[in-house]
Amino acid sequence: MGRSKRRKSGQQPPEQDAASGEGPAQQGLYDPRFEHDACGTGFVAHVKGRRSHAIVADALTVLDNLSHRGARGSEPNTGDGAGILTQLPHAFFAAEAARLGFHLPPPGEYGVGMLFLPRDAARRAACERQLAGLVAAEGHALLGWRDVPTDNRDLGATALASEPVMRQVFIGRGPAADEATDGLAFERALFVLRRLAERVIDSPADGAQVFYVASLSSRTLVYKGMLLAEQLRGYFPDLSDPRFDSAIALVHSRFSTNTFPAWKRAHPNRILAHNGEINTIRGNVNAIKARQALFRSAAFGPDLARVLPVIDEDGTDSAMFDNALEFLVLAGRSLPEALMMMIPEPWEKYAGMSAAKRAFYAYHSALMEPWDGPAAIVFSDGALVGAVLDRNGLRPARYTVTADDRVILASEVGVLDIPPEQVLHKGRLQPGRMLLVDTAAGRIVADEELKETIAAARPYGDWLDEYLRPLAALPAAGDEPVPDHDTVTIRQHAFGYTFEDLRLIMAPMARDGVEPLGSMGDDTPVAVLSERPQLLYNYFRQLFAQVTNPPIDAIREELVTSSTMLLGAEGDLLNPRPEDCRRIRIPSPLLTNAELARLRAIRAPGFRATTLPILYPAGGDGAALTAALAELCAAADEAVAAGANLLILSDRGVGRARAPIPALLAVSALHEHLIAAGARTRVSLLVESGEPREVHHYACLVGYGADAVNPYLAFETLHDLIARRLLDVEYETAVTKYLKAAAKGVVKTISKMGISTVQSYHGAQIFEALGLSRAVVDRYFSGTPTRIEGADMDVLAAEAAERHAAAYPERPANGHTLEVGGRYQYRNGGEFHLFNPSTIHKLQHAVRSGDFRAYKQYADEVHARETHLATLRALLEFNFAPTPVPLDEVEPVEVILRRFKTGAMSYGSISREAHETLAIAMNRVGGKSNTGEGGEDPARYVPDAGGDSRMSAIKQVASGRFGVTIEYLSHAQEIQIKMAQGAKPGEGGQLPGHKVYPWIARVRHSTPGVGLISPPPHHDIYSIEDLAQLIYDLKSANPAARINVKLVSEVGVGTIAAGVAKGHADVILISGHDGGTGASPVSSIKHAGLPWELGLAETHQTLVLNNLRSRVRLETDGQLKTGRDVVIAALLGAEEFGFATGPLVAMGCVMMRVCHLDTCPVGVATQNPELRRRFAGKPEHVVNFMRFIAEDVREHMAALGVRSLDDLVGRTDLLTVRDELAHHKAGKLDLSALLYRPDVGPEVGHIGARAQDHGLEHSLDRTTLLDLCAPALAGGAPVAATLPIRNIHRTVGTILAGEIARRHGPEGLPEDTIRLTFQGSAGQSFAAFLPPGVTFTLEGDANDYVAKGLSGGKLIVKPPAGTVFAPQDNIIIGNVAFYGATGGEAYIRGAAGERFAVRNSGAVAVVEAVGDHGCEYMTGGRVAVLGPTGRNFAAGMSGGIAYVLDADGSFAGRCNADMVELLPLDDDDARELNDMVWKHAVYTGSTVAWHLVGEWETARARFVKVLPKDYSRVLRALAEAEAAGLSGDEAVMAAFEANRRDLARVGGN
């Protein structure tokens, strides 16, 4: 054994070992648990297993060409992580070992560990001694050590400060690890050794030292670190040694949302690299923990206990997924089989799946829930290498197969230069599919073959037939009890029902089958501040996806969702047996009374039900409630020991002496208890409760462990409403519709977090507690964030007692009247609202009279009323200066007004009069108004004769992309990307069809009378690097505009904002949960998002800690009403301020909250011409409102002793928490984290003072295209050229497009004025927003987002000369092409990826095949598909026409027929299509197109016309209006009215 001198050049790190690179600990509102990441990933492999150094070198080139998908933090030379996994390079190591004086046995007889060790020599030696002792104790031979040469000269200071010493250890196989009988025996032994080392070897809790095993294997090796992609090769000289060879090389480049990445957090992990997020990780980890008690493993034998727990919970979600996958493989599952279990395809609703494969997935769903979330995973065990994509296809993965037996897969195409004649096939990873290269067998295994082989290994179908039972197959258990109407109201009182619950929530659900909508946000107190007793559910806020992963479209992409649950005991995950699928399948987690009765009476083998009461002594305090929960857990233990596996938690039996334990508390307490006891997988928890009645209640119960819920009092209430003639529906119908609405609502709730299956959401705890004490949360909801303390068990018991006393008063009272409620709409005597008749009147009087003193009376009432404590800021007081600053020394009103903005209210949600009044007012004061997501009428770009401008300075870009043209973007001072909105984060905006008047449809490029719904995700933002790409796209479209990213306050928003800052946003807006003017489901209005105070403070603190704060301006909005609100926002970190409800009220809004109904009585939130005439608002009213607030701000600044608003930003030392808060709940809050100030050096900025470097100067447009096209730009002279292009050239043509729009307007240039031909692989967003007059031809292929926002230009894509593959069978452009296109034409010779032409509203496109979800949400234009389509074609399509070649007659099975009809072509259609196909043939040379036009009369009969039903109806109505003699706008208006009255409308009702 020998040791080399460590070959290290460059910077000398600090003498002492610095922090391990784990970043700062939790402090203030920053919590490292909420770090997210996304990545670029890929592999290069030789199919035949031929090793070479070229494979490694090519993989490093791939990584270099993905560098833009990684990130760097506050230092340009510190990366978030990069790495490579290869096979062990035996020849290289054998030579190195010989040089070092030890000998290596043949491959497979030794393993290599790649270790990160402390820099302190003594600590390092101690680690090595401990490891040597473990190696000997396990019976292996320690052959030698090797220092890994590194070159840290290019590292940034942060990476250098935490850089570990890297050494490799060589371990000879011990005799016990016999590979002859078990091919994994040595790998398993090394795994055991690693787990023991991780547990035993000294790595102190302070993180000042580091011991980490990057890899320890006889097959694979990992080199990685806190590096930029382009630094990896230079940092590890080994990787450039010609002797370093492999047949497999897997690479990864990381983009972390904050700049506290760590050396060990870089990928690859031990077996995989991951681009994505596991959204259900908490539930998955809990489930694995619970299952461990059942594990038995012949493979591990007695070693099993030594490697548990399976999951290292300090790891990232990727690392924990890797833990589970590695364990399953070493326990005996094949690598592909384990991945099929963990990331199953969406099998339940896919009719085209084989019975055997469906049975495999169904069987394994009884053993394990999906690990759900967007994921592109590349994996290798040293012989197999492959990739798998999540069920939604939410990450890009393109691959190329070459004639010399290589497979190259990466997040982008074009990362490696391959001559066209060498390319055999170009493909993409499809949703739920797997690509597998078996280098041992020397072949690529197709997804279908691979999975069918695995599925056929056991008779899963027979097992399911024998053991899996649908709930409906259980015998009935008698009649449903008829509710006792005389006592229904008593029970309603006991469970806290209000009349509002009945009228606004339950009756609409039972009548319409959907969750009801609300509007105008939420200005009531959060639960912990309310004077009224609150249900426990109200203390929990739903989490939602924003930026780092997308919400899922549970309506249009329903095929990937599932509400199914399985009841009964799980089997041993490691030893599957036929009877392990002995479960009861229920279609949703909601049970009728009859269904629960069937389960309670079950007598089937393997099932036993026991009912456990969840009641406790009425009036009992927190101790009594705690004791009752302990009794419940003890009773459950007894029941489980006696063989029960269906535990029914029931609060039936409520009476004067017995009160119900809050159902959520009972469920979560028992769920956690059973996990700790190792018994959770042996039972199902069924909740029989009178308490839950709305969507949020059911989501909470399932999210904290309930397998099913029976809301018996909800059914009694529906029965009672019908009996009292308050609901005109049959009882059975009412129950069915109510449950349908509730189940769909739960699926929508989980989809907001990017989760597809209720089974995965079960127990996943996707919530934050707001205003619950840490003691309660740690004991009963462990792992749930709670950051400001709050209600303890005594408070919860007191609130329960108050409800119970209302039901059972000491003296009989009127028991037939429920409380009014008032949570959703203001009601006298109901819940407090900040905007109430009095404050509305005072504000309107003030702004109309121009009286600042009247405004002060309004402000005093808002804050005096906050003795009601409606907001967190109401708990704060100012530390005024001993000596105020003279008011005339404070910066003037005009300067402050520049920081003010109005909220994003779309033209469509509010009237033209209201929208333009806001714009005029804000332009007058030097502030900014916001278009909202509905586009803007170009007529507003021209100033009025009197000098006023009706143009909004902020142009919003939302997921619907309505009206987002290059002209629209070029007129912006600021472009806002709406990632989420306060009233409904995780959901898309919606405009009901009855509000889509012709003038609205014209601006939005849609059809009058057809409802518009924005997709929940931006389809070009599935990850943080995607957002960075859109920021780059929009900055390219208008370099002079600031790019603003709108986020909504939630736990972890600070780390998301750090990622957004690293993605080069100029402004970050943190919206509060309480804003929003448009239509939104009531559960979102009330239960999603947090107060802006928390999100803003967390964001400011996190950005300061990251040293990113100086890069961005911070903005906040959400019920800002006075100067005091603005000043507190500034002190918490904001520099700019948004107002929405306040200006609306100033213009006349009276908060009727009926915006979505088009019945606004004051003409503000309506498009109805009659109601719009009532609009009385004037710009002067809004101007007065803004000036009053600015003056109010100045007075506060003077009192605080500051002259400039910048001097207030982040100065939380000027705030203090109110003393002597007597409030029984608010008094228990701890706001110290809100007021925390990070301890950083003077070099760290606290305000946005530095401009972001967007890198536009390096773009192909700036370096080449603008100069090349100068003659066309200046004088319209024709320009033509041919240029090379690579994947690193992103957004090519968009800076040019913006320049054309600014100089030549929306008409652009004459056709073909600029003709550019590109050769190679284009980067993302090629030809985005291309305007008229520009033609781009691409000879090669392109990545995602081709021609997004196409605005009139022409695009031709075709394979290069020399191509040997059939283009129509190969992928030539990526996912989400033509997203939001408004005009232009495109001809694509080859296949496109997923979501082709999503939200197209005007482009004409021809393509030869498309993936899943083609033409989704399309509202206009024409698309011709000359070949096969994927699934779910035309989902949400409400306008335009698609022509699809249905060669084999199977298209109908792949089309979503909810909103479209499939028709044969008439003669007009045939002429239009023939013209499109001819052009395609001429422009691209497509053999497919030439063949079709050559036999046109035969070919046209094979085409199907896809026509949206609503669009068809409007066209018919328009034809009828024109036949009646109407023309132009009159005809359109008549068609709109006719369509609006037609009850057969589909979209947007």
List the helices and strands and how they pair.
Layout: E1 8-9, E2 37-46, H1 53-64, E3 82-87, H2 90-100, E4 110-117, H3 121-137, E5 141-147, E6 150-151, H4 157-161, E7 165-172, H5 185-200, E8 212-217, E9 220-225, H6 232-235, E10 248-256, E11 272-276, H7 281-291, H8 304-307, H9 317-330, H10 335-342, H11 355-365, E12 375-380, E13 384-389, E14 398-402, E15 406-410, E16 423-428, E17 434-438, E18 443-445, H12 447-455, H13 460-467, E19 469-470, H14 485-494, H15 499-512, E20 517-518, E21 540-542, E22 565-567, E23 584-586, H16 593-600, E24 609-613, E25 615-617, H17 622-641, E26 646-650, E27 658-660, H18 663-676, E28 684-688, H19 695-703, E29 708-710, H20 712-723, H21 731-752, H22 758-761, E30 767-769, H23 774-780, H24 793-807, H25 837-849, H26 852-864, E31 876-878, H27 893-897, E32 900-904, H28 912-925, E33 928-930, E34 954-957, H29 966-970, E35 974-978, E36 990-991, H30 998-1004, E37 1012-1013, H31 1024-1037, E38 1042-1048, H32 1053-1062, E39 1067-1071, E40 1080-1081, H33 1082-1087, H34 1092-1105, E41 1113-1117, H35 1123-1131, E42 1136-1139, H36 1141-1146, H37 1169-1172, H38 1179-1200, ...
Parallel strand pairs: 1-6, 19-23, 24-26, 26-28, 28-29, 32-33, 32-42, 34-35, 35-38, 38-39, 39-41, 41-42, 44-45, 45-46, 46-47, 47-48, 48-49, 49-50, 50-51
Antiparallel strand pairs: 2-10, 2-15, 3-9, 3-10, 4-7, 4-8, 5-7, 11-12, 12-13, 13-17, 14-15, 14-16, 17-18, 20-40, 21-30, 22-23, 25-27, 31-43, 36-37, 51-53, 52-53
Helix pairs in contact: 3-5, 9-10, 11-12, 11-13, 14-20, 14-24, 15-20, 15-21, 17-18, 17-24, 19-21, 25-26, 25-38, 28-38, 31-41, 32-34, 35-38, 42-43, 45-46
